[in-house]
TrEMBL record:
Residues 40-94 form the HTH cro/C1-type domain. Pfam families: HTH_3 (PF01381), Peptidase_M78 (PF06114). It comes from Nocardia aurea. InterPro entries: Cro/C1-type_HTH, IrrE_HExxH, Lambda_DNA-bd_dom_sf, Rad_response_metalloprotease. Belongs to the short-chain fatty acyl-CoA assimilation regulator (ScfR) family. This is XRE family transcriptional regulator.
Length: 397
């Protein structure tokens, strides 16, 4: 890659490469101690299935599946084959012997917790676990950008001596990252350049519309998961990324769905994208949607965000803000202030994982080899690498 590679990836020299050897084939009978109960739980959650539904599909009792996951019993070889078929994983996926970082739903910040059922949160966190596993496999071959997140170390955040004020936290991070006080042209790329893994795929099918976005600092690398359902609005997409960054910076103790933490993350995002000291003099003295639209394009934020800014700085009253917001929705309904897709903004589409694979591929790694190492299917690997189509789907009725 060129010296100006925005992902800052580098191939590791041979002397630093980690042994990546792995069996090409694992027998159906995994043998004593080879079956990994945690992998069964992960695969079930990725499939969005309950223990009862898995049991019904393979012809055993739900108690049996519960015992397998609780490590009090082991499935027979024919059960393993049935499980793999139902869960759409190779039998080898259920074997022990490879790195696994467990993430509980309580360890992730879910922006829309009330609309996200437990099964979908479990699916989302299991997806984040797989993203980390892919990252780990690639980091054995490619040097990723250094994690540059204040207080973060090896899956923990220590905020000792750091400010709890979201505005001050946003200002401090801008200074720390050398971003100045002007527009951030590429929000997602900025996160990736500082060692944060960002992904944007349909990892849960139509269910992603309920998940919106989430993040975690409980894994060895911080991860931000954005969903394509919001990608048809680049400004909302950028704000979601900044919102999740706020969680990573400020909230070492996750309280999923907590109103106060969500409010603080919103305040952080607004200040990070549009510093108050710089944006306030540019706001129109009287409500003017045209000028707000032009200002939003300049700073890469939505008119909604700038309306809130107008209210925060006292340019408009609370009643005026509410009426303006209703008027804005009406204008959108009539075809004005249309959303802009992220596909016109390359810096807002994650590339870190895909670029890392391409660099490793140039050194001999193949998709088939990597899928075998991770013990997943090729379609699953392509999804994790972000090869899925993130464009909104046209539905004819």
């Amino acid at each position: 890659m060129s010296p100006n590679d925005p992902t800052q990836l580098r191939l590791l020299p041979d002397s630093e490469l980690t042994d990546c050897g792995h069996p090409d084939v694992i027998a159906t009978d995994l043998g004593d101690g080879a079956f990994d109960a945690a992998r069964l739980t992960q695969a079930r959650r990725l499939a969005g299935l309950t223990k009862k539904s898995v049991a019904q599909q393979i012809g055993v009792s739900s108690v049996s599946v519960g015992q397998w996951e609780a490590r009090t019993a082991k499935p027979r070889p024919d059960n393993l084959e049935a499980l793999a078929a139902v869960l759409d994983v190779p039998v080898a996926f259920l074997a022990a012997g490879r790195p696994y970082a467990r993430l509980d739903a309580a360890g992730a910040h879910f922006r829309s917790l009330r609309r996200t059922p437990v099964s979908q949160r479990d699916k989302a966190t299991a997806f984040a676990e797989q993203i980390w596993e892919l990252t780990y496999a690639l980091e054995k071959r490619v040097r990723f950008p250094v994690i540059d997140l204040p207080g973060f170390s090896a899956g923990e955040v220590d905020r000792t001596g750091m400010t709890a004020d979201p505005i001050a936290a946003a200002q401090e991070l801008r200074r720390h990252w050398g971003l100045g006080t002007t527009r951030i042209p590429r929000m997602v790329r900025t996160l990736e350049q500082h060692g944060i893994v960002v992904t944007l795929v349909h990892f849960a099918g139509d269910d992603t519309k309920n998940i919106d976005a989430f993040s975690t600092s409980r894994l060895p690398r911080p991860i931000v998961v954005l969903t394509p359902d919001r990608a048809d609005d680049v400004y909302r997409h950028r704000f979601s990324a900044a919102h999740e960054l706020g969680h990573l910076v400020m909230h070492e103790d996750c309280v999923p769905g907590d109103a106060q933490q969500e409010k603080e993350a919103d305040i952080f995002a607004a200040e990070f994208l549009t510093p108050q000291a710089q944006i306030t003099p540019l706001l129109p003295p009287r409500l003017d949607f045209k000028k707000l639209g032009e200002l939003g394009m300049q700073w890469g934020v939505s008119v909604d965000s700038l309306l809130r800014r107008c209210k925060e700085v006292g340019a408009i009253s609370e009643p005026t803000y509410r009426r303006a917001y209703q008027r804005l929705n009406a204008l959108r309904h009539n075809g004005l202030f249309r959303n802009e897709s992220i596909h016109g903004y390359p810096g807002e589409i994650p590339v870190l994982l895909r670029s890392a694979f391409e660099m490793a591929e140039s050194d001999g790694l193949t998709l088939k080899d990597l899928a075998a190492e991770l013990r997943i299917t090729l379609p699953r690997l392509r999804l994790l690498l972000g090869d899925g189509d993130t464009r909104p789907q046209l539905k004819l009725v």
